[in-house]
Design goal:
106 residues; alpha+beta; Arc Repressor Mutant, subunit A; 3 strands; 17% strand; elongated
Length: 106
Amino acid sequence: MDPIKEIGQVDRLIHEPARLAITAVLSACESADFAFLLHSTSLSKGNLSAHLSKLETGGYVSIRKSFKGKYPHTTCALTTTGRRAFERYQRQQMALARHLGSDRRE
């Protein structure tokens, strides 16, 4: 399919910039805790929490809550579905970039 036509088929759950940042960070590791995601994405606690909830509802992220001593500890990971969706998103974006790059050289 033409990469330009695929723009309408982009995964909107991932495409939102904050969620794209979260999925990109999580794609590079097995799991990450809330504090690491907070630091890596520069989102506020509330924003990060809201976007993680949307990704969890979509089946892209699993969230595990526990305690480290007396303190709550939240760990997040991409699910298999989330990892596949992110890989598909990357392929679409790369195809679009290649397509646009080839149009400029002609």
